[in-house]
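Q: Got a minute? One more chain.
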Amino acid sequence: VKQLVEKARAGKLAPNEFQGGTFRQYIKSWDVPRIEKAAAFTKMSLTLSADHRVSDGQVGGSGNFFTELTSNFSDIQRLLL
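A: Always. Here it is, folded:
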């Protein structure tokens, strides 16, 4: 990891060195008292590459983005508006 950080800071990080990472968000699909309820979900891959300078180095900048994104995808009506 340290080598990748050094390469990134030097601007010499190749695309294949930062591809393939994952971010997982689990959405509960049933209430505990109703275990007979089940749902099937389609998996969607999403990639975020961010330069912290865009958000002025604000801590949690990309985390806030993913929180909003998750909210939008969790509520289909909100996504369609």
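A: The two ends are 41 Å apart (CA to CA).
Q: Perfect, thanks.
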